[in-house]
Amino acid sequence: MQTANVMLAIGGDAKNTVPKYGVTAAEVAVLRYIHGEDAVFDIEVTGSVERTHRQEIGRLTEVYGRQEGERRVSPAVADLYPGAAARVFETFDELEIPDDLYAAAGRKVAAPVKPKKEAPAPAADDDGLDAMKVKELQALAGAEGVDLTGVTKKDDIIEAIRLYRAAQSTPAGGDGDEDGVGDDDGVGEMNDEFSGENNLFK
Fold first, then answer.
1. What is the SS3 assignment for 101?
2. Where is the composition biased (Acidic residues) (predicted)?
3. How far is Cα 137 from Cα 159, in angstroms, rounded to an integer?
């Protein structure tokens, strides 16, 4: 259950106010029932307390009730939370109190802490360039010998690095014939011609 520090105008009298500390949302509902809708103001949510609904009803009846014979009775609590198994207000949002009745520092709501989302694992072919800044990419390009003349944008720098790396990974001599036989340059035929029977110099 959320708790807060508040100011209470006794009987709704703005000139007769008292501070109340660590009051629950359920208790603020009782105070507004007794003293008026605008009697509780400068509400500053501060934390929370562990308490069951039955325990809270019993506590509020004890604090804001009166003794009738052997019983402690609180008309305000009974009207707001009728029955032994009644549910009390747990958060201040449930009360739908106007924002101008909250403290000037701002409405502070104790929200549950959301678990941090883990970053997705990088893909197997992720070279990490996309996550780098422009200066880091420029330094990397300089270290690898990539020419960035006229290239200033991040995407263009990344493309230049990747193209350079792809070129570096291509095996040398890849333009030769796959069967290992070189092109005939005609020199052999010329030698045969000059070594034949019609060679004038023979």
1. helix
2. 175-195
3. 11
- Per-residue pLDDT, averaged over 154-164, amounts to 87
Residue bearing the bigger pLDDT, 48 or 135: 48
Tell me, yes or no, whether 13 and 67 share the same domain: yes
Residues with Cβ within 8 Å of residue 157, at least 6 apart in sequence: 134, 137, 138, 141, 148, 151
Per-residue model confidence as pLDDT tens digits over 68-96: 888 899 999 999 999 878 999 999 999 99
Q: Are residues 159 and 96 in the same domain?
A: no
Whether 127 and 163 have beta carbons less than 8 Å apart is answered as no
Q: What is the mean pLDDT of residues 31-58?
A: 95
Per-residue pLDDT at 117: 62
CB 31 within 8 A of CB 44: no
Print the domain residue range for 128.
Answer: 123-171
Q: Structural domain tally of the chain?
A: 2
pLDDT for 116 equals 60
Q: Both 20 and 94 in a single domain?
A: yes
Using an 8 Å Cβ cutoff, are 91 and 111 in contact? no
**Segment holding 168, helix H or strand E:** helix 154-169
Torsion of CA 75, 80, 83, 87, to 10 degrees: -150
- The span from the CA of 101 to the CA of 122, in Å, is 49
Taking the C-alpha atoms of residue 183 and residue 163, their distance in angstroms, rounded to an integer, is: 31
